[in-house]
Design a protein that fits this description.
Blueprint lengths: L4 E9 L2 E6 L5 E7 L5 H13 L18 E6 L4 E5 L4 E5 L5 E2 L1 H7 L2 H4 L1 H5 L3 H12 L2 H34 L13 H41 L4 H23 L7 H56 L8 E4 L2 E4 L2 E2 L5 H15 L5 E4 L7 H13 L3 E7 L7 E4 L2 E3 L14
Parallel strand pairs: 3-12, 3-13, 11-12
Antiparallel strand pairs: 1-2, 1-4, 4-5, 5-6, 6-7, 8-9, 9-10, 13-14
């Protein structure tokens, strides 16, 4: 059962002289008035009465008063909470007249409900942590976010490599006329050596013909010199003439092969192979880039699936307010981070989360509602009513939205009737 405040009576607390208020059971009850009249003192007194001495103001007794503070709050569950006397001793009495203490109050009073600024001023990550504790998905979400970050970092690294490979491929020259494989210089040198060997054989044959020619010439001289051996010399002459004819015939048809093309190819082989290597490097870089792009796309899908799981986890959770979520450890509402929310949205989010922290606590104290215009105030009050929540708030105003006014420490009834969405009285 949710517990709210039915009635409160405060005397001599801070700026308050005497205030009585019966807040609306649900919706927005606004304590209005000009500055320095005692509005915030009303909320401080409620926090002290219900939250214990840790909320006691440093100068609790009203300045100039000789009478100690008196606080009396009647709760919807029938409890009567009082702080009276010189030491402001706490007294809690249940409907049967039994006495209790702070421990009973702590069982249904949420600390943040009486100290909303503590939540409002906490860091975005602390707000998110509070929400995750409420809905019970903190460990699962943290695990998914760690997995998402790891995959994101991996994808980023692969993307950088892919960009580098693509840049390298674009910068590499390409030679369409170059062969696909490196040319072997050894093969060309072997061909050159074979031609040189054949040419060497031709040279040997030419030398042989020249030697025979010399022999023939010597034989002629021998014939002239040795007439007595003319017959033998002529026989030798005929023999040499025959050999000469054969040798000359062999030498006549010989043609030397040119090594010019092979020498040119050898000279150009380094340039050819440079082009081939450039083409191979370009092809490999393009293939590498495609591979890394494929990995990048695959990690894109993995990250999308992780984010879907995060969304499903929060969608299926029992959120205190539709539109709340957590991303990268920060609280979001309708896709906006805390510092991008309007003041009214921040209050609505804070109120919803505080209410969820301790469902038995059906009220919340809100100071300084000046940031809301009349329309936003009314919408906020109507939202509180739909949520069956009670909010007691202060606002620098003397308009008809105020349930009561505080003037010089006293509560007075406003003359203008309240619009729908808030109400209250004495």
């Amino acid at each position: 059962m949710m517990v709210t405040i039915n009635k409160l009576e405060i005397e001599n607390v801070k700026r308050v002289k005497a205030v009585k208020l019966e807040p609306s059971a649900t919706g927005l009850t606004i304590v209005g008035g000009n500055n320095n009249q005692g509005k915030t003192s009303v909320l401080d007194a409620i926090a002290w009465a219900l939250g214990g001495n840790k909320y006691k103001p440093s100068q609790a007794q009203r300045e100039g008063s000789t009478i100690p503070p008196t606080l009396k709050i009647t709760m919807s569950n029938g409890l009567v909470v009082e702080r009276t006397g010189k030491n402001s001793a706490l007294k809690v009495i249940d409907p049967e007249g039994n006495k209790a203490g702070q421990k009973l109050l702590d069982s249904f009073v949420e600390e943040l409900a009486i100290d909303l600024p503590k939540f409002m001023e906490s860091s975005s990550k602390d707000k998110a942590t509070t929400l995750l504790q409420i809905i019970g998905v903190g460990p699962q979400l943290a695990e998914l976010e760690m997995e998402e970050k790891a995959k994101y970092d991996e994808r980023h690294a692969i993307g950088v490599i892919a960009d580098q490979k693509e840049k390298f491929a674009k910068e590499q020259p390409y030679y369409p006329d170059a062969p696909k494989e490196l040319v072997s210089i050894a093969e060309l040198i072997q061909q050159q050596q074979e031609i040189l060997a054949r040419n060497g054989e031709n040279a040997r044959k030419r030398q042989n013909a020249a030697a025979i020619q010399n022999q023939y010439n010597a034989a002629n001289a021998e014939v002239e010199r040795l007439e007595q051996l003319l017959n033998d010399a002529r026989a030798k002459q005929a023999e040499f003439a025959k050999d000469l004819e054969i040798a000359q015939t062999d030498a006549m048809d010989l043609q030397d092969e040119s090594t010019e093309e092979i020498e040119k190819n050898i000279a150009e082989i380094d340039e050819i192979n440079r082009k081939v290597r450039a083409n191979l490097d370009k092809d490999k870089a393009e293939d590498d880039a495609k591979g890394y792009r494929a990995q990048y796309k695959e990690l894109d899908n993995v990250i999308s699936e992780i984010r879907r799981k995060k969304t499903d986890l929060l969608t299926n959770a029992d959120l205190p307010l539709e539109g709340l979520s957590v991303d990268d450890g920060e609280l979001l509402y309708l896709g906006q981070r805390w510092d991008n929310m309007s003041g009214s949205q921040q209050l609505q989010v804070a109120t919803a989360i505080v209410r969820k922290l301790k469902p038995e606590c059906g009220f919340v104290l809100i100071d300084k509602l000046e940031q809301m215009d009349q329309v936003t105030l009314q919408e906020f009050g109507q939202w509180l009513e739909r949520e069956k929540l009670q909010a007691i708030a202060t606002r620098v105003s003397t308009g008809g939205e105020c349930s009561i006014l505080i003037e010089d420490g006293y509560s007075v009834k406003p003359e203008v009737s309240q619009p729908s969405g808030w109400q209250g009285g004495f």
